[in-house]
């Protein structure tokens, strides 16, 4: 194999490995929203593709980007959010993967949302900026804790404290930890999309925390993610240093 072709192969292999590490194998969840669909190769699809390209550029520098492309019925609105502990490179890789994957999973849909561990991406033909999105999903650790009452109380206290920090923070994000029994710790993360007002961010996070007993009661870890905010707790450190 000529050197130039071999070097190109190594570059491609390195990028694919980086993409896999940054994104993970599969998205956490997705919704194809509503029933409206666009015409293949029509103006909405053109605007949507331009929107995806824009979000891949806008999101990585700060971890958040939003944009609109087109006019009237063909206007496509979207945003992408990355965790602040994720590098710019990993953020871009996640948003790039999300942009491709959501169009595969929701072909021709005018609105959709997809979550990964490192990022969230959503788009719609409706102007949703600044509005709390109540679409949500749960996930939890299969392991049960030995003392649910005490653990659940610690979880509520930690997440509630983080909510108070996040909704007034510039990046609407907070992480923290609290001591448990036997020298163990509980780790938490809360985050809002930055198109929300501080009041709406707090309401979104408070609502997510209130869902924890419904999804994750007595579990060692859990996550509640909506289209506007997400919360997570685990008994192991999951935030990148």
Automatic annotation (TrEMBL):
Q: What is its main location?
A: secreted
Q: Which UniProt keywords apply?
A: Repeat, Secreted, Signal
Stored InterPro entries: CRR_secretory_protein (IPR050581), GNK2 (IPR002902), GNK2_sf (IPR038408)
Annotated protein name in UniProt: Gnk2-homologous domain-containing protein
Query: Does the keyword section mention Secreted?
Result: yes
Which organism encodes this protein?
Answer: Vitis vinifera (Grape)
Signal peptide annotation: 1-24
Gene3D superfamilies in alphabetical order: Gnk2 domain, C-X8-C-X2-C motif
The similarity annotation says:
Belongs to the cysteine-rich repeat secretory protein family.
Domain of life the protein comes from: Eukaryota
Indicate the segments forming the Gnk2-homologous domain, all copies: 26-128, 133-238
One short Pfam name that applies is Stress-antifung
Q: Determine if Signal is one of this entry's keywords.
A: yes
Compartments, as annotated in UniProt: Secreted
One cellular component term from this protein's GO annotations in UniProt: extracellular region
């Amino acid at each position: 194999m000529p050197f130039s072709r071999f070097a190109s192969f190594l570059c491609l292999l390195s990028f694919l490995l980086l993409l896999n590490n940054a994104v993970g194998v599969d998205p956490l969840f997705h919704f194809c929203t509503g029933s409206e669909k666009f015409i293949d190769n029509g103006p909405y699809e053109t605007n949507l593709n331009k929107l995806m390209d824009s979000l891949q550029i806008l999101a990585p520098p700060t971890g958040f980007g939003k944009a609109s492309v087109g006019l009237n019925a063909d206007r496509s609105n979207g945003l992408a959010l990355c965790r602040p502990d994720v590098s710019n490179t990993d953020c871009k890789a996640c948003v790039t993967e999300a942009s491709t994957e959501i169009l595969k999973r929701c072909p021709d849909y005018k609105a959709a949302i997809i979550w990964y561990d490192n990022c969230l991406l959503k788009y719609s033909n409706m102007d949703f900026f600044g509005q709390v999105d109540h679409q949500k999903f749960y996930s939890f650790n299969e392991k049960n804790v030995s003392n649910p009452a005490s653990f659940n109380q610690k979880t509520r206290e930690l997440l509630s404290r983080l909510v108070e920090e996040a909704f007034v923070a510039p990046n609407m994000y907070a992480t923290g930890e609290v001591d448990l029994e036997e020298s163990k710790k509980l780790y938490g993360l809360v985050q809002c999309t930055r198109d929300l007002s501080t009041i709406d961010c707090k309401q979104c996070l408070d609502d997510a925390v209130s869902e924890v007993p419904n999804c994750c009661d007595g579990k060692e870890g859990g996550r509640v993610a909506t289209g506007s905010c997400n919360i997570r707790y685990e008994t192991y450190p999951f935030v990148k240093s």
